[in-house]
Specification:
The complex is a heterodimer of chains A (204) and B (406). By secondary structure, chain A is an all-alpha fold. Chain A has 10 helices and no strands. The chains are: A mainly alpha (204), B alpha/beta (406).
Chain lengths: 204, 406
């Protein structure tokens, strides 16, 4: 994350009546000083820290939610969700997406968090998570324009960079095609859809 | 590589704006957003290609941008030269090998290994541990299921009861010895053969590829053809005299003896004529059927636990699917008649991305749920020091499966 977490999204936290002090601490834990692996996954013998923004991906979310909830309570957990939403919005804005798509994407993000919590959290903690996530789900999309404007106002990106970032998928597709034709299959092997290959190369 | 291509694209865009080829940057951004929305709605890759083509034809601005992207990608990969292979091959001599060329391959399965390989390992892991996870379940792979449905479809659909394995083996040995007796061959020891077949699932699996009468392996030098078609003449009052064909594997020796005894014709296509040798015909047919049941016993015995509608459903899905294209990895039943379709997913760490159900699996899952199937998703996590962690999740809706986003 490029922006300082203490500043980032302050207005948004206020807008949703969250305690900025708690949110600042939560964001600090997630974005700048991540927890030790063993604190979040007690069974794993790993002496390192988790990567920054661990928990943003939906399959990681329940683990960090459980950790933040145990340290900061339900207020902290709400701050966590909002932080990830702001982070998500920033990522989408940097890639040139418009507000309409962002609104749908935020909804999908929170829904995916709820689904993951249903699978990985049990009992009371799942109920709490589902309740607070549902609250966020109902309140944020309504005010998505304001939230997007807030995030937009907090970072500056060159329009060239925005266009380049928006083209990422197309560049990636082209790169895969070129590399594939050079015989490279990668450390993480990839494949090219046959239709795309035929369309661009004329080869079968 | 991607960031290099992005830098090149940026430089090219700057040039294009300075040269007046691109008037402003907002217009191409809006075009990209339009394409994104359209391609998000496209269901298949050819549709995505079509959207891109149409957009590029209708909007020269977008076409120009695609052109710049293509050139940037080529330039970014232009000076790659020899690419680092995903598998390191070491051609150094191995000490003590007297100068003989010896190769070694260094291959990290967890990181260099492709997803298919890891997926296969994950399936084997699940097969190994599921009795510990859910002891009451009995499972077979969907590949075994498909073969059983393809080759023993009528047994499954006509709801013919599958007896205990030992009873089937005894019947098989009895019929084998009957056929051997007709050919004047020595009887096989009932006790030894029963013992071998009841203890080795592997031998049962390979029975269909052995000589039907002497159980020798099908070695080209020993077989005239590895697969001899025997046409069996039948009396069909409605359609007159006809033939139907069963696939038998017979070794040279057994074929010759059967021909000498007059059970099989000496001219091609080889035939067993029922009217001439009804007992041999019945014995052979019964033997063929028992071999099929033995080869697919595990899947058939699991299938016998479920209701007819579910059987028909599985038959429609799996019986005629191509090899290796089966939705889901395992089919399981429990003692109460509960039925499960299992999709094993794997990840390289304790919280990695998991592959979602394929489009086909989602469709099958939706239909299967209506018939009372449950969808299970075991997650195999490859951790350090050869450790795997297997978690079991029941998926209640298609959207609940761990998907790739964000």
């Amino acid at each position: 994350m490029v922006l300082l977490p203490e500043v980032f999204g302050r207005e948004a936290y206020l807008m949703l009546n969250l305690d900025v002090g708690v949110c600042s601490e939560v964001v600090g834990v997630v974005a700048t000083n991540p927890p030790w692996v063993v604190d979040v996954f007690p069974g794993i013998a790993d002496e390192g820290r988790l990567p920054r923004n661990f928990g943003y991906r939906k399959n990681e979310f329940p683990f960090i939610y459980r950790y933040v909830y145990s340290r900061f309570g339900s207020e902290g957990a709400k701050c966590l969700v909002l932080y990830f939403i702001l982070y998500h919005i920033e990522k989408l804005l940097r890639r040139g997406y418009d507000t309409e798509v962002i609104k749908e994407s935020v909804k999908a993000l929170v829904e995916s968090y709820i689904d993951e919590c249903r699978i990985k959290l049990q009992g009371e903690l799942y109920d709490i998570a589902a309740r607070s996530l549902s609250q966020v789900l109902s309140s944020v999309p309504e005010r998505i324009n304001e939230v997007v404007e807030l995030v937009e106002g907090e970072y500056r990106q060159d329009p060239f960079d925005t266009l380049v970032e928006a083209s990422t998928d197309f560049i990636s597709m082209e790169l895969h095609l070129v590399l594939y034709r050079k015989g490279y299959r990668g450390k993480r092997p990839f494949s090219i859809p046959r239709e795309f290959f035929q369309e661009r190369t004329g080869e079968c | 590589m991607l960031s290099k291509a992005k830098q090149i694209l940026r430089r090219r865009l700057e040039k294009a704006v300075a040269g007046g080829e691109v008037k402003n940057l907002q217009a191409p951004l809006e075009l990209i957003n339009n394409v994104r929305k359209k391609t998000a709605m496209a269901e298949t890759f050819p549709e995505v290609i079509q959207v891109l083509k149409t957009e590029a034809d209708e909007n020269p601005e977008f076409g120009r941008l695609l052109g710049l992207i293509e050139v940037s990608a080529r330039e970014a990969t232009g000076d790659l030269g020899e690419l680092e292979p995903s598998i390191k091959i070491n051609t150094a001599k191995i000490p003590g090998s007297n100068g003989t060329l010896a190769l070694s391959i260094e291959y990290n399965i967890k990181f260099n290994g492709d997803r298919t390989l890891r997926g296969t390992i994950a399936e084997l892991v699940f097969k190994r541990v599921y009795p510990q996870l859910l002891g009451r379940l009995r499972c077979c792979s969907t590949t075994e299921l498909a073969l059983a449905l393809r080759f023993c479809g009528e047994i499954v659909l006509k709801d013919i009861a599958i007896e205990d394995i030992n009873a089937i083996i005894l019947e098989y040995v009895r019929h084998l010895n009957m056929a051997r007796e007709m050919l004047g061959l020595e009887k096989r020891s009932e006790a030894v053969l029963s013992n071998v077949l009841s203890s080795s699932e592997l031998i049962r699996t390979y029975l269909p590829s052995r000589c039907l009468l002497c159980l020798d392996r099908a070695i080209p030098s020993n077989f005239v053809e590895t697969d001899i078609k025997v046409a069996i003449k039948k009396n069909d009052e409605d359609r007159g005299i006809g033939y139907h064909t069963v696939h038998l594997i017979l070794c040279n020796n057994c074929l010759r003896i059967a021909q000498e005894k007059g059970y099989i014709t000496t001219y091609r296509p080889y035939k067993v004529i029922r009217e001439r040798n009804p007992l041999f015909y019945e014995t052979i047919m019964r033997l063929v059927r028992l071999v099929k049941i033995l080869a697919h016993y595990e899947a058939l015995s699991i299938l016998s636990k479920i209701d007819d509608k579910a059987k028909t459903f599985l038959f429609e899905i799996y019986a005629w699917a191509g090899s290796g294209a089966h939705p889901f990895d395992f089919f399981c039943v429990d003692e109460q008649g509960g039925k499960y379709l299992v999709d094993v997913v794997s990840t390289r760490d304790y919280a990695g991305e998991l592959a979602p159900l394929t489009k086909c699996e989602k469709e099958v899952a939706e239909e299967a749920r209506k018939l009372g199937f449950k969808i299970l998703v075991p997650v195999v996590r490859f951790l350090d020091n050869w450790t795997v962690k297997v978690e079991l999740i029941e998926e209640k809706q298609a959207s609940n499966h761990p998907s790739a986003s964000p």
